[in-house]
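[Solved] Which block belongs to which protein?

Original post:
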Amino acid sequence: MLRRRPRIVIRRSKLETAVLTARALFRTSRGIVRFSWRHRRPLAPVHAAITLGTLGAACGAAADGWKTALLLDASLAAGTAWWLRRRRLKDRPLRPREHAYALTSAGTAGALLLAMAARGGIAPPMPGLLLIWLLAVGIPWWWHHRIRDVDGALGEEIELWEQRVAHDRGALTGSWLTNLVGRQDGNGVSALINLPPGELTTEQAVAATGRIASAFGVPPSSVVIEATAEGANNQAELAVYKRNPLQAVHPWPGPHLLDHEAGVAPIGVYPDGGHALYRFWRPGSGPVHDLIAGTTDAGKSRLLDQLLAYERHSPLMVSWVIDPQRGQSLPDWQDAVDWFADSVAEGKKLLKAAQREMYRRNKLLARMEWTDEKGRLRRGKASFTPTKELPLLCLTIEEAHAVLADPQNVKIVEDLAKMARKCGIKLRLVTQVPLLAQLGNSMTLRDMVAAGNVVVLRTANRLSGQVAFNGTIPADPHALPREFPDGSSSSGLGYSLGPQARSSVMRTHFVEDPFEWATTGETTALCADGIATAGTDYATWRQRRDEAWGTPERADEPAAVSLAKDAAAADADVDELAPVVPADDSAKSAICTYLAERDQARTGVIAHDLDIPLPTVSQSLRRLAAEGRVRRVRHGVWAAVNTDAAERDDAAA
């Protein structure tokens, strides 16, 4: 015989029961309100019918309620007229059928409200008439806002959006899609994302790109979300691609794409086929500085090939390049630009010459006489537009972190960034990580170059994109794939901020044969006065390079000896300059200890072994020599002073 489990009865007090009931009613009502608000667009006729019935019952119950109904009808008519006029003023007028629907709905609602007020509220036959009005108004509304077919298929994208994106815990709760259209090539769809006003913004929609790509089951690079052309902050443009259009390589057509009137040229393409534009100069204003960043194999050098080709084939631009990697980053351009510095020491000479040219141009433009558009003779120009007589000088610094490790270089580059734009000198910094430490710890320098063209290709961390764009566009270059699904390289993928501020990913053009563009056309050079100002370093840079190339290194020479020779050559250049980095006690103490353990050492070897900047070591040694703690054996070679012997000599004296 089976035993039945005892029945457990939970007894609650009347107060507890009332509290639980109130909580249940509150949760239910809150859920109904949230559901009604979230689906307010499709439920608009239902909301209108409920409001109309409530107002009719209130007017019917009140004395002389028909007067209140007439006042409400007048308000409804005035509001409808204002709404229609506002759409016309915004160039969004209703079509004839929509216009007739709006007037008919408002007119019948006003008549029904007046009838309910005269009848005494919701009394027969008012409920039936209200239901008929709901169906007459609601059916056309629901048909107009139905999920439409796209290219013969069901609106699967809208269904996915409702189920996976717009729900309570979705990426964009309460949003909905409109204007859903299929691409002509069949590669995906585009739509307009409508965001709940006051709850979500365009920036939040862009930031949700990864989750939306997950909802559609495609890679993040196949989903593009960006602001609308009007800039409305409660809307965003959506494009979902079945196959990423940027997976195909887009060859660079050639330097003829440069617009010499506007100073703008395309450097890449967007998924929708639009050009990613880059500005060399702004007419009547001056050049625009650059910041180009990206990790290894992201495509920086290929982008520089394109920019240098534009410059070489334009008579309005002169190219100076610093490549600390001995020219390995840009090998095809070593003889194709007006000055190519293949080391930090040579780069310092180039920077000094650029600074002198800046001051020469400042003086020239400040005294220049010209006639304005009103025929008035004026003196001095506060802006710059390149000409063949005074071309734009484009200064490219590859591996900028190596060049800016020298504090004196930082000071010169800061001066160029702040003052050279008005006289036609353009600064382009190229680095792997656009953080402050990689740009000479100069906030001024980073802010100046980040205010111009900013191109960030794939990065190794999330911080790089945020720092480079400074919140201007909500992009995450770190999320870009290293390779496409078919194993092909994603080099060139990135984001661009220049004449455009699109948050869409782009891919730079691919220069198939940079050597061809480097060996055709003519190298634009400075004018005679500019050559004289640049000085001997500018006139003899090829000779110095050829002599350095013609000096073979011994195969069995230790790396430390080779480094010491290079450092000694750099130290000879530093000795001619005023010290820049203070020689603090810690540096002097470390150098004294180092020399005390060795017979003698070169300046460059000391800097390398102690990991102290070369200018700091050079200054510290001069101060130590003045204090009598070290002695100079010969140029660039130092030794410690024997302290015990010195003390004995002093005692004997």
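(Second protein starts here: sequence line, then its structure tokens.)
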Amino acid sequence: MSAQRTERLLNLLIALLNLLIALLNSRFGLRRSELREKIYAGGAASDAAFGRMFERDKNDLRDFGFDVETVTDLGWSSDDPGTTRYRIGKESNRLPDVELTPDEWAVLLLASQLWEQAALGTAASNALRKLQAAGGLADVELPAGVQPRIKPAGQAFEDLVAAMHAQHAVRFLYLAGSTGREEERIVEPWGLGSRFGQWYLVGFDRGRGAKRFFRLSRFTSAVTILDREAFTPPAGFNVRAELNTLPELPVSDAVVDVHPGKLLGLRKRAAAAVPPSDANGKSDGGWDRLTVPYRDAEVLGEELASYGPHVRVVAPAELSAAVQRRLANAAAFLATPVPPYSFAHAGTGKRTRKRTSEDQLKRMLQLVPFLVRNQGLPIDEVAERFGVTRQELEGDLLILICSGLPQGYPDELLDIQWEEGHVFISQSMELNRPVRFTVDEACALLTGLETLNGLPELAEGSALESVTLKLMAAAGEEGLRAAALSGPEVGPGNSANLEVIRDAIASGSQLHLVYLSAQQDTLSERDVDPLRLYSLDNTWYFEAYCHSAAGLRNFRLDRIEDLAPNGNPVSSGIKPDGGFPAKLFTPNDDDTLVTVHLTARGSGLADDYYAERTAPLEDGGVVAEIRFGNTSWLPMFVAQHGGTARILEPEVLARGSRDWIEAALAQYDNG
């Protein structure tokens, strides 16, 4: 949205605060002439221009949760502008009261926090604040050892969700599984969902004139949203039902050569290693030949590409091509000039989308009912709950206290005070109930609740089912559209290890484990004090104090070779930091600061690795400063991401990744 239109929309929305109050306190709407005079204030040069602006803005208002109703004088045609009035319904635009038990609040908090770093994270927070305004705050504790998260498929996921909810077509380049060629696709995005550990787009392919499934891992370009290309999805569309029709890919065998003693994780999944031989039967002692089962050449290709010169693919040709393509894309990206960038005005911490006037208006519409329901909260706590600074919050409050009935008296204005650091509202002018859920908000919570069905300890209780039914009833039509999004299954693959860890956390017992470190390619034995369990999609981790490393570490459950209590109580005295969700790693001040260049497709990696500073680029990419405790695996990182990430500084690490890629490609050149 252009800066000019955003500013005009801000003016419209601020004026609508006064207009909304007027309409809520009267039975009548306003004629077009009154709207033009009160809201647009000469912004349209002609009646036709005003009409286009008003129709476009009505659609924008609908996205905020407001439907502008049309009322006509009795006996007159709705086409007569002199007798047609417009209003915002007093009840139809409000969220129904939703009373939740503490158990239901706990489940709902888990569902909302699934989307920590996704497009729906902000929507989930907005929805929670609306529920808190409708039903009050609740002091609840999250279930011990249950902290699931959803990891969307990069920037493509963000853009597809936006296009899907706005009902705009999208364009992208796609690696076709049937031909192995990169092709441009224009698609109407009907739904997004996860199946077999992969994210899929389901939509109407305009080029082929039929419904198609697209794996997001096969997107080879950024997604372009075609703002002028609208569509209507099929009635009753359910992406989970569509994805359930997809058969799982058959198991195939890959033949790969691996350097002796390397890649322990790959060897675990492979048949017994044998030395490869040439056409004359002569053995090549420099390699071990493995037969590795796989289902998806692109998924295995991503893993094998990261191993660089330690592996070469013998067969099939499809897998070899997948590996070489990633390596070649990485090499091409490494060879491109470094774009100009500057951290001079970069923010710190997690990348955030620049706030707009629309965000401010959404916040103000949530703020009034929230304050009405939660009188006397400290202003700093209110700011924290809304994710803004105190200065930004006070700016919102200053706008609100100037809003009320048009040409009204002082007692017909919103009355908000924040003396001595606590916020009170004594005159809410009928804005005391939250606006109904938007589609994004309904999707964020209802999809999160559906995802939690994969956790037995939640699915077996009544709170998950009851809160889902309550939200469906409250969300109404927007809740039905949540069927267009479906998250991954988050149930643990190894429930035995999970139970051992959970019991140890509850009893305060140490654990002894044999662990495979994929980055260091080694097995190690450790004694740890377990702290908490969490998941990222269907991959489970546990955070623990490692006595060998003398620090906090995170361990993947599927890389544990052996696990058992060692008979000792925990002794470190370390507690979880209380933050949610747990971080996969916590950078230290003495870690190496690495400057990483990410393309638009790979920009989400800056959040995944907790970038300290980011500098946006004109092409949608980003340069990020990230701290790494172990830098030896960074060449694997560059190769794995196949042309979406490269190291800029320190130069020794950048050179190491270039050498890694070149050595890996040379094996195929010589083959």
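Accepted answer:
You had them paired correctly. Confirming on the second one: The chain has 21 helices and 24 strands.
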